[in-house]
## 1
Amino acid sequence: MSTRAPDPGILSLLRDRIDAAPRACTYAEARFVGRRFEQVRVRNGEADAVDTGDSEGVGVRVRAEGRWGFAATREVTAAAIEEALDHALQIARAGPASPRAAEPLAPPSAEPSRGHWGSACELDPFTVSVEEKLALLLGAEEILRTDRRISRGSAESHAMRETWALATTDGVACTQVRTECGGGLQALATDGELIQTRSYPAAHGGDVALAGWEHVLGLDLLGAAGRVRDEALELLTAPPCPSGRRTVILGGEQMALQVHESIGHALELDRILLGEAAYAGASWVAPRDIGTLRYGSRELNITADATLPGALGSAAWDDEGVPAARTLLIEDGVLRATLADRTSAAQLGLPASTGCSRAEGFARQPIVRMTNVSIEPGQAGTLDDLIAATEDGLLLETNQSWSIDDRRLHFQFGCETAREIRGGKLGRLYRDPSYAGITPMFWAGLDAVCSAPAWRVWGVMNCGKGEPGQMLPVGHGTAPARFTDVEVGVA
Amino acid sequence: MTDALELAERALAHTDGQALARVVAERSLSLRFARSAATQSTAIDDLDVEIMVLRDGHAGVAATNHVDDAGLRDAARRAADAAAVAAAHAAAAGPYPSPPPGTISEGLVGWDPATAALDPGEGAAAIEAAIRESTRHDQEAFGIWSSGEVTHAIASSAGARLVDRVTDSYMKVITRDARERSGFAAATDMTVGAIDGAALARTAAAKVGPEEPVDLPPGTYTAVLDTEAVGELLSFTAALAFDGLGYAEGRGALTGRLGEQVAAPAVTLLDDPRGPGTLLRTFDADGVAKGPVPLLAHGVAKGVVHDIRSAARAGGDAVSTGHAIAPGGSPEGPLASNLVLAAGDAADVAELCAPIERGIYVTRLWYTNTVREREALVTSMTRDGTFLIEDGRITRPIRDVRITDGLLRILSAVEALGSRQRLVGHGEFYGRRFAHGVLCPAIRVADVRVTGGA
């Protein structure tokens, strides 16, 4: 376990400065974030990049005269934090006058959050040598390129440790350490005309978890490489996926993106309340829908759970000091709750935040973000069971492209592969599959979700939101699931 | 602000052999608003020190925001270790024989003192003006005002001492009525004085009319794409067609097509980091001087952009064109970030619409993403002001539609271009602030493929 707390002097420093915050601040918080990262990437037999970095600083957020101000400094000193406090107060006061009175913040928790938490990490990725990482990645990547039609093989690993401390004027004083680690590989096959891609275990950089190097070892990149290569080559001779309305089974990784884009973002309360309308967008869900809206079929059960072990969106507290919790968002297809921070919860008159306030690093302010938004396991057994129970359809796996409108209503996604299903058996392979849908109609067609043994958590590293932009990692627990009457082949 | 060049020199002093240190220091202020009220205000004062060490032509790069000697020394050691590892696992020497030849320059051509002041009062005044204007139209205002000063400094073992200090200001206004109809306008400039909140709100509000939107069935339509939509598509073209790494790896849409007619004869496109109306830049992340690079001349593919890494991979006579976005080159490839699409002769959007019997007018595109890289096939949704064109005039709003089409196909179907260019900026700034944009006019395009709607 790696649960090293940040230097205790840092939390004291934050508390001292917050205790001395000007009286004009109705609320103030100071958040220290120290980060260390390493990315190792191999490409066509060479070490393409060994990128390392570290950073630290303090972000200070205040509320004054009903407006927010945030200032960040990389200097972790009393003078610099005090200066940031003054700056945050200055820009809060300078903001345009509001036509409406500001609501108070929802309370952080019954008792102010205190203490320290560290994520599980059996093998500290920063003590595993770069040479050892390269040996694994180069070994797997070499297997990809044992056929000359693989024009580019690549493999990568990612490690990040974040040390965090938070103090607020309502008594929060806590620290945590999170370690992320993961990786994956990708084969690019070409016959001179077509280019086809196959990734493992997920596209867009592989699969990352809140874990140590043991997560990368558990992916068995060496064992998977031959299959990845063969599937990339098979795609070169596969016909394009035919278009039409079909029954589809989405693999677990694609389900993660489907949940992320068409449920997770749509249920962010700041979007529902129009706070993000100028950039990320609003939502097709309205405040009055909470508790009554039929989001999908009765098979649809969705949770937000920041307590999930090993999931990228897990922590003991969010960036406002609200303790991690599990919230049922959709129950038997009906919308029950949303993702909220203290501001949006108060705006809607909710009794409390759902602990979804997160920020990227020290130089961005917390906003409403997903933690781990998951579809709960169903009763359809294994993926093989679900295929066997499907007379005519397609199995779509591994995300390749994604796009959705600003209300999270109309989406179009592409996958790396499609396999025909006939009479309960897998058939021919198709390349370049895509599908499109309207969110509530698509989820209304959900008729089966695989059972708990087929359920696992996926890490999504590139969730973007906010201005200035913030990229945050989130987790999604999913199992393969089946949808009826889906529009396939639109691209 | 820390003296960026002095810091780059201190970082370089912790390296041995061939090396380069780059400092990117950001001061910025962003004020967001929604429903005609302030929501978030963010002030950033931070920097990155990136140290690149070369071993046998292989680059190792490490980054830090620690500016004391211990932090810089540690980053230099990590960079040296990374370079040594890369060299040890390579079959041949790498693409970096040395940092670019030493030059000394200090650029302030893209810098404005009033913008660098980051005055929150100026931002608040612009927002209040936008809110007043939108209220006058019975609409609510949403958006952001953001200004920044970013200093790039490079010191290298080859003697380079480079400083480029730039400012930028960006404002976006979306206005929205009670029926959830919305309009959009945005402005980007080197100087904050060019940002007019009231004018932006007026433009946005004018796109929200009393008519109910209608549904548009999938099909192909002649489209007038306003500047924001054109800028979005050209930004994707930069990544899918003009990226020298993708070109060299056979993934690019122009692979094997240089010299061919790939766009309509009316289309002339270059990357011009020193041209009038752009956000001026003097050198890239490797310290290579920037200059104009022809990409399409009257529709003929003329070139792609390179950094040192992609040029080495391309071989032949390819050289860096000054488009590295990270020291040593990003694994994602170089980026043309100052695209300029030559203007045409249509006086305005109305003139572009005039010959269209039935088509669509698109204010902006949203969530564009690549479907198939080699074909430069992308998909995107319209947003904040999409209209039907009937009998040569913009008539009724339509509900947002999805467009899925090839970027080179779109460029090959350009029928006319507007005579006025606008700088379409990218104001989201994931990571370190990197103001860039596309200078372009509105265009008319035949047979744009609409594949669905919301």
## 2
Amino acid sequence: MNAFSLTIPRTIKQALDELTTPKGGPGKLKAGGIDLLDLLKEGIEQPGRLINIRRLDEAPQALHEIGEVKADAIPEGVWRLLPGSNDGSPPPRRDCLRIGSLATLAQVAAHPLLASKVPALTESAADIATPQIRQAATVGGNLLQRPRCWYFRSSEYQCAKKGGSVCFARDGENDFHAIFDNQVCCAVHPSGTAVALTALDAILSISSPQGDKFVRLSSFLVSPTQPGGAIGRENRLEADMMIHAIWIPSPGPGERSLYRKVKQKQSFDWPLADVAISARRKPTGNKELEAVRIILGAVAPVPHRARSAEALLLQSPSLDAERLRKIGQAALTGAIPLSRNGYKLPLVSGLVQQAIAELLS
Amino acid sequence: MSKGDLNLLEGDSQLSASTLPPSEAAPQAEVTRRGFLKQSGGAASAAALLSLPKASAAATVPVPATGPAQVLGPGAVPATLLVNGKPQKVMIEPRDTLVTVLRDRLGLLGTKLGCDRGGCGACTVWVAGAPSLACMTLALDVAGLAGQPPQAITTVEGLAKGSVLHPLQQAFVDKDALQCGFCTPGMLMSCAALHEQARAAGKLASVGEKEVREAIAGNLCRCGAYPHIIEAALAAAKLPTAPAPGKGGVK
């Protein structure tokens, strides 16, 4: 690890000021530090200064707390991004779950309110890494975790993501890489909570020197080929911003969600593939779905929405084996496996079928 | 451009130590393998011993909650660690991880450095009672600094109460729950935390294999002693309870 200074701001404003006034070189925010320490030890990141927000004094409850905020108290910026009405009028206000970005994965995984309202999120958090890591790692940091591609993580390879000209994984050891959108950089997004939170249509509030900003997680995370994307980054957070909180529209009656993950090593591992589904049934009571989101993880540079599978699922509430098989197949629409990750096709198809059957049967 | 993009660009300004038990750990007088090697091995290792700081009271100066951001380092700065109930003054560089300070500066060699990437659990210690990875924790993150008290660190050395082993340690002995022993301190800290948490919740009797497996999910044993480790963790729940093991309590 290179030597660096550690700045301990007392307030969010001080933290942002430290990021934007680079005395001694650009700074890097550190919260739980799990991913960052990995990158520092490998020499992938060599900042002159770390700005440590792990022990921020100011309003710690706002950054660490998990709770439900009533409809009339949610910020304007969140309201405007809530699921809209169909006739173009502003979306209806609704209660939201709010998670401070410094809440740890252990806190999220064990939170009874989240477990009852958004099980996809608690299930994803509980399945990340180990008990010790979940104790330190924050949910904000998990969303910002850099990809686990071994070429990216190795100081020996100056890969395209690090400013080089070659994606070594494209024709190399690409067993754990993307099957969608893999032509520029085929590293997959490593965050399990990002998969669940995308399925739950989460909104981020982001602190910046220009005030708070709001963005849907689904447009915050960008692959290199999407508008606003670049090969060197996985999201649209600028150097002078920090994630402040995560907002999830509180599910109403008839809404349910789940998260399922396939790992190579069962005690702890990154996913070979993971899926989160949120679904809302029509109030008619005949099991017909009104809305569904199927988000696949570990298959693309960002969580991948399986729209064809969603459309097929919405057509009919029947879930016989043949229909499930077709929906599983539809989840692979657009997939182009690399030389060593073709196994992900049947894996993802099976995982999607299993998850749908479990959620809706 | 999606609606989300517009919002990101537009912005929106709507938002706005625990009490310390006295140290019970008596200085070790017995000859240890490592001590023997050090004494017979010559002067090279004496430097490490000389640098051991003496235990002294934490001198944390309270400062107002407002004020400029503190900047520490990049050189070593004086800080206080609270280890096994004892405040220890030590010079720490911002890049020093807790495991290196515990081992190299404080001479607490029970905590092992395995993978140094948070993957093996050999360096597991308790931070404020919760199992944490000392290799993935900056020492200054848990140190007492101006205005902030140190967080209580418990290492495997702090598990026994004097000469009375923690029930988990006794059970590891009884059940032969180790082969090479390198994972043992980390295993003990994970299992003992489960034990303490269950005991605090009055649920010690209901600790089952599932709970044990979850607790040690982050601790690798290359020898494959898992069956005996799990057996020991289950057996410990049935041992007579030792008084107040550990320092700093369990979350």
## 3
Amino acid sequence: MNTVYKQILNQLNVGILVLDEQCTLLYANNFIRDNHKHEPRTGVSLFSQFPEIPEDWFRKRVESVVMFHNTSFTSWQYRPHLLNLMETRPITGTHELMYQSCSLAYLGHFDQRHLIGLIVQDTTQTALSQMKLASTLKKLNAEHRQLQKLNQQLEEAQSQLVQSEKMAAVGQLAAGVAHEINNPVCFIKSNLECLQDYTRKLIELSQSVEGLIKHIDDEALKTQFNQYKASLDIGYIQDELPEILAETLDGTQRIQDITTSLRDFSRLDSAEWQQADIHQGLESTLKIVNHELKYSVDEIVRDYGELPSVLCLPAQLNQVFLNLLVNASQAIDKHGRIVIQTRHETGSESITIRITDNGKGIPAEIQAKIFDPFFTTKDVGQGTGLGLSISYGIIQAHQGNIQVTSAPGEGTSFLIKLPVTPKRTEHTVCV
Amino acid sequence: MTQNSLIANEPNELNELRQDALQEIFNISMGQAADSLASLVNDRVHLSVPQMHWVEKSRVQDLKAAMKRVPKGAIICQPFFGYLKGEILVCYEQGTQYEVIGQSLAYSRVDTQRWQHELLLEITNILGGACLRGVAEQLNIRIDFGAPALIDRHNDVTAILLNPSSVWVKALMMEIGFSVQTMSMTSDILICMPEHYIDKLFSCIDLLLE
């Protein structure tokens, strides 16, 4: 029967070693003999035949197995090659060593010694499949994360584009309306100027008639004239009429200024890159946001330096100025002061525009986020959180940069640096 | 917990006798296990008196409420089979110190970090073996063990038991608190046996009681 058992042990696709508690190797089946680099000898220390086994650790395991009469396990995941057994597929296999999961089992007490069996299972296929699966999963997860990030970027870009388009559309509409208003305003103004001239002449005539009448002896006519003049309140009209006309003209002039600013701000002709005057852009933007600034800002300081004309998309830069000025006014409670400083160092290839307010400032912890899409501190419905991110995109597209410095309670300063002549290759990229 | 549902057909007096006997068997086994473990790891090992819980899957929340503590951490599961069949679940909390017990099992300090999971599997194997060996000897039955496996890196045992795909319906759960001084930890071993094997367990106990 022993021969049968030995045959069975040798036929198994499982490695079997038998040792005693001193770790003397007593038996190794064919699976071990065939797959180990060196054929093991029995009757000697296990570690002399399998020097790859960590001796202290293994002896402790043997001690525990003998003490508890139990089985101890190792897994390929943590200890892939307890024995240096070769892969069973020397041609199609991809690894030199076999992955193994082993059990160290207490076999019993025979001939005054404890016997222990080391059973070695070939788990190479499982291990390789698992590792491939894990690596595929890792790759998939990385791709998934990448896709999520791209999706988010896409959503952000889309929102920026929509907002940007919306603002451009509003700007164009405003410019169109401004143009339509401008035409009648022009002839109203022209007519008013004529009217002013004619009125002046009529008043002159009236005054000279009055002077002439004084020298006539016909008292009845004089009285009749004076009564008629008094009944029509001509004296008052003579005083008021020039004033009314001057005020009306002033009003008309203001309408014209606003329509011109609207037209300048939106720059219908500015879909293409062109040389533009930054100060003009700032001024037209200031006029547009005047209604926003007038309640909170007491003073707007124009600290303008000498600037060369800058190759840019003027309407888009105006949009940036508008965003910064509106934000500044919203940061100010009252008695605000906004300083607009522009500089160009002689010989430098870039200009700087600094817009500083004395508002409540931006807390340090959110300064890094203010250019992120959808980041807003305003109440729901008050802000899209896209203004500064779009501004950032516009400045980037101009190959410039925009930086913020802020001290809570003291104010905020945005510094825009723009190249005078951006490289042409990237001109078309703009949100 | 449904203390009577698993053994509803038996007279209560007999059930109480059986439970007392089972409790006693586990108490003795735990004492032996603690001694053996202590001598292996050269450390003070404390195993608490086992608490018996009769649990239905639909009422695992009751088990959670009844357990002395419900630690959260790496969960190791080890199956056992033979005359009785079930699983041992052990939870190792984060922050457990493994260096000293690792060294006593011949893992160097450097190795301990590297082999932490293997060490946990081995500690579970020793603990489970130590706890159930005494039970098997006293009942004169054979119990063998499968390889332990890490089934969750961070969870509590009851969450594992609640897995909707798992097959168990009713089970006996023995809750044993254990602490190893140098591991700076106290945790729980949960020995779980499905309903079918409770009858076999009680038939062994009945033999002892005769």
